[in-house]
Amino acid sequence: MADNRVKRKAWMHCKDAKIPRTTAWRSKTVGKRNVRKSLMSDSLVKMSIVAEESVRSSSSVSDESTFTFANETGFQSDHSSTESPTSTTEIDNVFDDYDSANFEDEVDDFSSFFIDSVAYSGEKSSSESDTERSDCSSDSEFDSEKDETSGIIHESKMSNEDLVDDNIPLYKGAKVSRLGAFVLVMLFTLRHQLSGRALIDLLKVLHALLPDGHRFVASAFLLKKYFADVFGEPSPKKHSYCGNCLGRIRNRQTECLKEKCQKSKKKIEHFLELDLHMRLCQLYRDADFVRLLGYRFENDFHDDDDICDIFNGQEYRKPMQPGGFLSKDNPLNISFSFNTDGVAPYKSSNKQNFWPIFLVINELPPRLRCSRKYMFLAGLWCSKKKPNMQTFCRPIIENINGLYHSGLTVVTPTGQQKIIKATLLLSSADLPAKSLMANMKQYNGEKGCSVCEDEGKTVGVGGLHRIWPYTMDMVLRTHKSVVESIRKVVQTGKPINGVKGASVFLLFKPFNLVKGFVIDWMHSVCLGVTKSLINLWLNAENRGKEFFLGSKTALLNKRLLSIKVPDIITRCPRSLSDRGTWKATEYRNWLLHYSVPVLKGVLPDHYFLHYTLLVTAIAILVSDRITPEQLKLADELLDNFCKLMSELYGESSQTHNFHLLRHLTYFVKLFGPLWIASAVSIFRNFPTLISKMTTSVNSECVISLAEHLAGERSLPSPPGDADPKGFVLGVSKKEQLIQQELLAVNRFLYCRGLKVIGQGDEVQTHWRAVVNGAIFSCAQWSKSKLKNSYTIQYEDAKGSTQFGEIQRFLVLKGHNVAVVKNLAVNGSLVSPITSSSELLNNFADSGVLVHHIVVTKRSNIYFCIPLCRIKRMCIVVSTSGDNMLTLSTFPNLVEHD
């Protein structure tokens, strides 16, 4: 009976075979049933059959074309080699709305010149050599649909020599190489954002048009697989764990050995580990990456008492000593920061959550550490349950341990083989994840603080709520004391001093189990303390209390919504009534920028001054330069803030997040400013980093390959006369300057010995400019009433800090300059306020509170300054009719939305 069975999809292989009625109906109505799939007409089907016959006439059919990446990633159930994946993976569905438009401009730039430069030549060009191909970052911006193997044209069998030599002509007599044709098709696909179905149909059309014996790939799947192989992205490694106890399942085990788990009949599940060694090998072949590793040696961080970066921290200075692991004697060695957090891509709580593990290279400049190019996605847990961190983190920790002791042989851009090593300095996570990684009690348990041995105090009915009252002396934990507690736990089987057992991080002996688990200020301060304070002020349960502001919400919202933010803040301020949907960055902006001007005069003075202690201290600890005096001040401010919490808001308000405020300066001394370990910068790139685990095509790598083939190395750079720290944008317009602007410009020209501009002369005016990577605009050009990217902080000729509003950008005798209307500083925001507390009054009178928020007044004085003197944008948080503006400055230029 099996012998009489008709071959599956026989009509695909024989033109005389009858097309099933259902199949014919589907091909005609597919566009009506699913708008995401391209329409496949009968004529196109027949054309693909004719084209396939010509392919079969010259070669045999390979069944390997039905291989799918989805099976390797582990996000789909396994398919047989004859099954057709007809839907996207779960990861694809999560990020289905992710747009690839970010790369349209690059694709357009290359498409124009690439067609003329990929013509086949008899001699192999060095730019087309496999060894010259750039290994770019896995910034997958093109998340296509799965290739449907129904209607697929099978790949012809090719020799190994053919697969290696991509410089062969596409067909006999062709002027385009095989590789050139591949890249052209992918550039076209990326530019027009073709779906997976559309790409399949495009290849069928090409097969129908190409002559017999052509060398183009036979399917869309194999085309994408080709690029995946070229750019060396290995499939993730699957690790098995028990679906019941979440414990590790060893390679040769088929089930969990625990009796309870065997009775539960839960399936074995898997998490993924990405190839860290391969990514490191790729990066060390990048000349830019190797050059950037020297950043830590450029500014003599170890000789500076100010804290500007992780290199100024006590823990980093130790391996920076001569002969140390990260010293100039070992310039290629690196250190990692370990970061993990739960990410819920679904609105429904019963869906699966992602738990990624990110590794950040600390030696890179701050702005590049968390970029998609250089940050590693090391592991991924996808389950309804939270991960067992002892199971999940183990393979990554073991991998780092191997890199620390044995190292990894890499090939540098100069072709030399070098052994590089890596270490793990710190780990950052929210409180629940940290307790799992450290294998300690949570924040609601006795001695649940990972930094000190404070017991806390239980309150409420049944003692279910634990608070952390202020205590004068805190006993800090040490690595030695934690290890000793672990030994006692092993002996007694009971928690000791909050320690429940051995942490998986013990596998890496250089890691400090106390200092290494840093506080993530995004979770503890932004989503913890700040959110709690807003709820105290606005929740109806506090009605009747002195600090209750619920009846004044309308006034607060009016002030909040009138704030104008620059373009580098993606979200404009939202109403306090919507705070339930605020993101961490919105709570951060409220704390540092919005809250003080909004609350002034509304929150009682005593509470207001108390709150400014917190704002001032955090603004210091997240700044890009912290002096020893400022660090001492921040510690004093936070200590007094916590001391007064019970008096002002009651004992129950002293949650664990408020307790952690007293430990912040400790970690700043160890590892630098709080933004070093902030999850804000890390997890904003999660969607694009996770996309490399699907079958999508890496568009940056395709474009980079096109650069090599076309003899180009980069996109067009700014004009030659542009300042390296700033250049103007857009088409210039000739305009006359007003009298005050003309005086400022001529003063600038005269001081440089250049010819001044006469009355009535026109100058080249631009409305936008790029300075230090940020786009600034002019007051006259600003299109949005809600945005303000022209109010700035700048330096005058003497190096003093000034504020102003950009009126226009000019190009004067090769100099890129800005004409600025000066804003004169006109007092402090808190100086007129007094409190019944002598302590708070002393802080207010000292002038140290909210130093980053200034009150200014518009003047009629204009200055002409080079673009390099523009330091940062300011947020206009309030205005008044008498030309008074309250400005908030950004403490650092690293963290952004």
Automatic annotation (TrEMBL):
**Known Pfam families for this protein?**
Transposase_21 (PF02992)
InterPro entries assigned: Transposase_21 (IPR004242)
Task: Give the span(s) annotated as Disordered.
Answer: 72-91, 124-158
Composition bias, kind Basic and acidic residues: at what positions?
125-136
Which domain of life does the protein's organism represent? Eukaryota
Task: List the PANTHER family hit by this protein, alphabetically.
Answer: F5/8 TYPE C DOMAIN-CONTAINING PROTEIN-RELATED (PTHR46579), F5_8 TYPE C DOMAIN-CONTAINING PROTEIN (PTHR46579:SF1)
What is this protein's name?
Transposase domain-containing protein
